[in-house]
Amino acid sequence: MEKLLEPTSDPTWVLVAEGYDPLREGIHEARFATSNGFLGVRGGRAVSRGSRWIEPHRTYIAGLFDIPGPEHPIPVLVPAPGWLESRIIPTCGPLVHHPAEVPSHRTTLDMRRGALFTGCRLIDHPNIAVHVRTIGLVSLKERALGLHVINLVVEYGEVEITLEASFEGLGLGLLSERLEQDLGVWRTRNSNKRLAMAAASCLQIDGFDLAPTMPGPFVWSWHWKTRAGQIVSLSRLVVVARGDSQDEAPDRVASEKLGIARQLGWRNLVQEHEAAWSERWQRSDFEVREDPAAELALRFAAYHLTSAVNPADEHVSIGARGLTGDDYHGHVFWDTEIYLLPFYTLTWPEAARALLMYRFGPLRVQGRRRPAWVGAVPCILGNQPTLVRRQHRSELSVPMVTLLKSSAASRNSTLLRTLRTQCCSTGKQPETKNSS
User: Fold this and answer.
1) What Å distances lie between residue 145 and 81, 197, 241, CA to CA?
2) pLDDT tens profile 370-394
3) What does pTM read for this prediction?
4) Which domains does the chain have, with CATH numbers?
């Protein structure tokens, strides 16, 4: 337990923020976000937010877009319910009213392990003091899975206490179809997409399980009496499934994957996740001799690039903010191919292929026998492809040539031949090297 709750000691692998700065809290949540290309969670506080905090945790699902209404016809990324809310409540009042009361709070993004760590001491209450450490991640091994573990050590105090874990924002932008104790199904208003979330929580006190009371859907509550030296561990699992049509059953998928995760246990899930990150770093790590600041900056960029893509899904791409925030509404621009694709072509060909196929999909669906750079280009707004008419041939040639060259560089001969057949049925083919 102790080792799993400690971030990497090498400072060139970790990003650290201390204390509370209201002007930078939102920036920190984006920079410290954890993501795997399907599921993204902002790096917000889980324990030390205080009773006065009202903004829910933000969770994002790639491809979960909806059209707000006829007055705003462009699709936007819809946030999913937050699943990290945790409150420690002694009978004589909350431990924390406001995050500014916890100057000892420390947030650490461990890029080597792909996990977010926090730690603080809650000592302002007159009757109890608690040392809190947490680890949170979204699995790079099983992208539907999120994990959060809270470890409490009671420094002093014998008081009756309640620990409550719950979801937030159950009706934030989505319509509820089904809400049970540990399973929820929602749908978007206009895009016919569905979302299922299945969750489980387990609390141990000094190694022994304590059964929760369940006052409502996605609410777990435990009550006990503390003592000095007591060790409390709360582990939470969430599994997310997206349904792109009414024929799919995301609730069944989420429930089945949650059952598998519970059998493995959270420690094994952490180990599998870290092994997946270790494999990725073997292909994409940076080393800069005698310049640790540059090394940290490059690893931070590579961390978010690795976090942003899902090689198993050709129907989504990388938005301007990835899955770290609401800005740009999740919209995808050609910047993805111009600036990001070369990294994946070099380090992760499967991810590069998925991004190429996302762009190629609208061309294939159209089935038009014309050069792609004459008259139309797939302009992606909120991962929903539409055709935008253009007048100038030069505006269209750049992204399509980028696709062709990236296909050649990644030695994806099948995709390259298909792109050439589709895009160059008339007119001169762009020249690319290493096309075999």
Assistant:
1) 14, 10, 9
2) 333 332 333 444 444 443 333 333 3
3) 0.85
4) 11-280 (2.70.98.40), 332-423 (no CATH)
How large a percentage of the chain has pLDDT more than 70? 81
* 385 Cβ contact partners less than 8 Å away, ≥ 6 residues apart: 361, 362, 365, 378, 379
Residue with token string 């589709």:
422
Q: Please give the DSSP secondary-structure letter assigned to residue 429.
A: P
Number of CB atoms found within 10 A of residue 213's CB:
11
Determine the pLDDT at residue 408: 55
**CA 5 to chain CA centroid, nearest Å:** 20
- Beta-bridge partner residues of 12: none
Q: Are 222 and 210 in contact (CB under 8 A)?
A: yes
Q: Is 317 helix (H, G, I), strand (E, B) or coil?
A: coil
* Whole-angstrom distance, CA of residue 219 vs CA of residue 212: 9
Q: Are 56 and 166 in contact (CB under 8 A)?
A: no
Interior CA angle at 408 toward 404 and 409, to 5°? 115
Give Cα 43 distance to the centre of its chain: 10
Q: What is the DSSP letter of 72?
A: B
Cα(261)–Cα(264) distance, integer angstroms: 5
